[in-house]
Specification:
The structure is a homodimer. By secondary structure, chain A is an alpha+beta fold. The first copy, chain A, contains 18 helices and eleven strands.
């Protein structure tokens, strides 16, 4: 049975040695001293390891069951959800006026990684609630906030987001769900939504659905879409639960993974709904949820990669098979452990060098969000907006690959469900798809984000890399081992951006044909930047004296692996991008 | 529900226009005229599409059940197996003296691809029988051949291979299963074997297990392993079935995929077995099965990629979502089909350019095997032996990735089991693991095959590439579009081989740290060579006049995609190989 050990030490290193968050000029960050964050992270880690991890296989094996319109979650989920509520975890980074703990997003992200790693299907119930609450917080009236937020912040009520319909996923302009205005100012919502995560379940008193629908007579297409609050039970003025709304779960899907989360077909049959935000501006409100959700999904890629890696590593140290090519390393045993073999080591280093840098990337992104929100910093907002599709797309593509590598280390046992490695792969697979499939992320990056505000944000990113290199190039080892490879990778990224600028206007296909490669190229440069920053910290720690020499030496060795073995992928991505539209688009549709 | 259309046209193109098999000086090949092979392939294609494809989802959903020691296969499997037997398909390329049809391996490979694509779990029952029969054919006494082969060639009896034990998979020297010699010349086999595909089922009268075990007093380790024939029912002298042998299926595994195939724990409790081949030379006999099985597994990678691609393509043409960036292509519809989007096209081209070249590679490899066996050609034998780990490892790694890409095209529907795309991914996953995990293939390639016979076979491969380039470089388009990229990729492969030669002796880790990259580099060069050969054929057909212009133009466009977008991966693999052992091995085990 797999286990999970929360990466508290690594997170502390990132927060306090690499990023020095307590010194950042962001409101609320001064309190994030090492002792404080350690206490939070250790407590979260215990819940992840002791409460959520044991339920992960249970959720996978049992799945959810739909019985007479009610979804039964797997054995133990309800009790664990109560425990999460009692600990106040769902409201960790929500405002205290609605019962939250006011902590910055950077802490929510670190804790979220642990919960996701331990049990992705379970953690989605509160993750979606968080997203729905954020949308109400940003766009709701004061009455709506007062009605829903206290219960949602505590997860007494949970939330969902309803976008997809059978005939439209990405292309929401084709939506058919209707919202008929009523004399009392409410709306009657009718239509069918599919793929609704946590759409129905038995762990909360009420479920607050946020539903996209069209008000008849509004603009055509995506501009005529509005967002509605549609509670499972209507809420009386005194906050008590009123009658059951006209909505139901028609079916739950049988999926490849995340079996513990109920994925519902939701039918709205003239259900009472309340407009959230402005009419016809539903996409804007929905994007509040979506951007948060996309970062959360990127984090899932990292989280599954990390838990899979931890178990692969334990197996590689434990399983005896073959002898080291350079001579027996376990001469008294019948064979050496798997980890002596270079190709096993190569796979473990792929995983380790990814997860540690991805974690840095996530925390850096989270701090940018805090800066954007808490300091009203437009530059930080623009940068994190640019990076959002990279975090979502790159970390989930790579995260999935890492779970496949981890599974491979188990050999035949990796394919047998009882060992648990298959579940990491199957669960990680969804992250490449939901909240905008990764092709849509690449399109968003190249088609929208790259040129937004006149390309200001991507220029800011390049400046940031350049400045870091310039400021630190006096350190010879940092320079040769980290800064030079980073510089070369960053040049590849700049060349690719240049190619799009020169060709994208006259041939949009030339840019879009390279969009997936650009997203990966960008992701590698980001992880390369993270490694360079971590290496700077570790070189400094080793030079000035540290009680943890082995930790910093391991960081440097892992970082060097990334710079030498992973980062050079940027050149391949650039080659593909430079080949332009022709290879991709030459074949006529009918010739496929 | 997914469908499958047998690639008869593509196979005919490869056999008769690219490789001209009927003109090859291999005994039995002269009969392989286009009309004849078309008849065989079309008939096989009908069975694949109409009989095996509909059972694929059934097998996945129902799986196998162990009831009172008997394994029940999914609904319809038994009837389909009868149909396969009646059609004589299992013995297609087996000797006529045992009831087979004497066809060359190249035909067996083409037909095998179809059956695997349609239903991998089902096809494994006969695939393993074929492998076991081949081992008896190569190493059995005349009595053994007469006793077992007629029934196995017809699949009246099926076969298995028993290698793995709970504590040893790759490292078979640690085997504990014992074979005690009996006065009558037979052996009593005792021990437990795991991961035995088709180990027990209800589709055949008898199951002939080939079991590796150690005869007490023999050499230590792998050199003391012998191979035994251990039938489920003992066979009387007149060929009728005798008493049940002392062996049983203790458990069937719950796996990620190939649910329709029973993966058994087999317990041998003093079961009667008969030595196959020489005592203590069991590995040699087992390798007859293993090499055949490895090529068959490589084919599974291609097969799953192809069927997944076919369904992804159909979906991409059918599903309306969004508009082409260059203007609506389906202006009267609510949206354009997915295939208009460059990133969807990129994914489809990845898949198409892989499967078509992989198919060529498989058929070329099969023809080499025929030449090795039927002409006793040592050069062909050496070359195919070198290519076997590449076929197994590269085609299954890439094949799996292609199923993931195909699944991605379905968006959320790809994650829902009823659409069938998840099954292709889950089934394809096993091919990277069984018959020697791909890391073992890479080790076999770099540690053994590369330098075997003084490196003669890899030099022959380089010569073959060089000669092809030289002989065809008068054609300007072939030269610039295909031969030059192939030359560059082949140079990368030669540099990598050179790096291993220069560094491998003093630091074996330097070679093994790059083994996975070398296997992939080699695979890309092979597919590049296949594309160059196909392009030569298509350029010639277009120049001399063909009734099928569109087919040949599509070949060229698809090939150009491979050369421009996929083949440049060789440079990245070389960069990684050249980084040597240090990045991979620097981190001490205790620092992980």
């Amino acid at each position: 049975m797999p286990s999970y050990s929360a990466p508290v030490k690594d997170m502390q290193f990132l927060m306090h040695e690499v990023f020095n968050i307590a010194q950042m000029d962001i409101p609320g960050y001064a309190e994030l001293e090492p002792d404080f964050t350690a206490a939070v992270l250790e407590e979260a880690g215990k819940i992840a390891s002791n409460v959520l991890t044991p339920l992960n296989a249970v959720g996978d094996a049992e799945g959810c069951r739909l019985e007479n319109g009610v979804v039964r979650t797997p054995t133990g989920f309800k009790e664990a959800f109560d425990q999460m509520r009692e600990g106040g975890w769902p409201g960790l980074d929500m405002p205290s006026e609605y019962g939250g703990q006011d902590m910055p997003h950077v802490i929510g992200t670190a804790v979220g990684e642990m919960f996701s790693a331990a049990n992705q299907a379970f953690t989605m119930y509160q993750g979606l609630t968080h997203g729905a609450a954020s949308a109400i917080l940003a766009h709701g009236t004061q009455t709506q906030k007062d009605t829903y937020l206290p219960k949602m912040v505590s997860c007494q009520w949970t939330g969902t987001m309803n976008l997809t319909e059978p005939h439209c996923g990405t292309d929401l302009g084709m939506m058919r769900t209707r919202a008929e205005p009523q004399p009392d100012g409410s709306y009657q919502i009718s239509g069918q939504k599919i793929f609704i995560s946590s759409g129905e379940h038995d762990m909360a008193e009420n479920i607050i659905h946020l539903v996209l629908a069209k008000i008849p007579g509004g603009p055509e297409g995506i501009k005529g879409v509005s967002l509605f609050i549609v509670p499972k039970f209507l809420v009386n003025d005194d906050g008590s639960l009123g009658p059951r709304n006209s909505l139901s779960c028609g079916k739950i899907e049988h999926k490849m993974g995340i079996h513990g989360n109920s994925t519902c077909v939701m039918n709205y049959d003239g259900a009472t709904g309340y407009l959230l935000g402005e009419a016809h501006k539903g996409m804007r409100a929905m994007f509040t949820m979506m951007n948060e959700a996309r970062l959360g999904v990127g984090m899932q890629g990292l989280a599954q990669a990390d838990v899979a890696y931890q178990n692969a590593l334990a197996y590689a140290k434990d399983r005896l098979q073959g002898r080291a090519v350079t001579g027996a390393e376990n001469p008294n045993g019948p064979a050496d452990p798997l980890i002596v073999h270079p190709d096993i080591r190569r796979s473990l280093m792929d995983q380790k060098s990814f997860t540690e840098a991805a974690r840095a990337f996530m925390l850096w992104g989270a701090a940018l969000i805090d800066r954007a929100h808490r300091n009203n910093d437009a530059a930080a907002d623009g940068l994190v907006s640019l990076l959002t599709p990279v975090i979502k797309g790159f970390l989930t593509d790579e995260g999935y690959d890492m779970t496949v590598k981890a599974q491979q280390i188990y050999g035949g046992h990796g394919y047998i469900e009882e060992w648990g490695m298959s579940q990491f792969t199957r669960d990680a697979r969804i992250a490449m798809i939901y909240e905008g499939a990764n092709g849509v992320q690449a399109l968003d990056l190249v088609g929208r984000k790259l040129a937004s505000d006149g390309g200001k944000h991507v220029m800011a990113f390049f400046d940031l890399v350049k400045t870091f290199i310039k400021e630190n190039d006096a350190h010879p080892e940092l320079k040769t081992q980290f800064l030079e490879p980073l510089k070369s990778a960053s040049k590849d990224l700049q060349s690719a951006a240049m190619f799009f600028m020169q060709n994208g206007m006259k041939s949009p296909n030339a840019a879009l044909a390279g969009s997936n490669d650009f997203m990966h190229l960008f992701g590698h440069v980001c992880l390369g930047l993270m490694w360079a920053q971590m290496a700077k910290t570790s070189f400094a720690a080793l030079a000035t004296g540290t009680s943890d020499t082995a930790f910093h030496q391991a960081k440097l060795a892992t970082g060097r692996y990334y710079m030498q073995r992973r980062l050079p992928a940027t050149a391949l991505h650039l080659t593909r991008i430079n080949s332009g539209a022709a290879p991709v688009m030459d074949l006529p549709v009918e010739a496929f």
